[in-house]
Write a structure and sequence with these properties.
CATH superfamily: Winged helix-like DNA-binding domain superfamily/Winged helix DNA-binding domain
Structural class: mainly alpha
Radius of gyration: 19 Å
Helix content: 55-70%
CATH class: Mainly Alpha
Number of strands: 3
Distance between the termini: 26 Å
Length: about 120
């Protein structure tokens, strides 16, 4: 994702690591801190800090696991979901605007290039 897109998004001031965490929660649903740390390839302590920053901003919440009271699930809040939905809408709009500027010949070249990359990738 390019910086210019993030800068125009509702989460423009958010560090990349927090945006990554929000995307994980948006895509995969509630997660434990341990799973978050594994996904982000950071320590549980660092993951806890990222979670805390999102919780303080009202973008995420913690819920006790009903099966294991020692375990806590982290999920996006309604506000967090709305912000990521707005970002998704912005990205789709930008992509649509870009695609509208590409003629059929250029689009065919892009498709041929992608097919070529996929074919070569299978040969490795």
């Amino acid at each position: 994702m390019r910086t210019e897109v993030i800068c125009q998004s509702p989460v423009r001031d958010m560090p990349k690591s927090q945006l990554e965490l929000m995307m994980l929660l948006y895509k995969d649903g509630n997660q434990t801190v341990k799973k978050i740390a594994e996904h982000m390839q950071v320590t549980s302590s660092a993951a806890t800090q990222h979670v805390e920053q999102l919780v303080q901003a009202g973008l995420a919440s913690r819920q006790s696991d009903t099966r294991d009271r020692r375990s806590v699930q982290v999920g996006l809040s309604v506000k967090g979901k709305k912000q990521l939905s707005s970002l998704e809408d912005l990205l789709i709009k930008r992509l649509q605007d870009l695609m509208a500027k590409i003629d059929d010949t250029e689009l065919e070249r892009i498709i041929d290039f992608q097919d070529n990359v996929l074919t070569k990738g299978k040969q490795v």
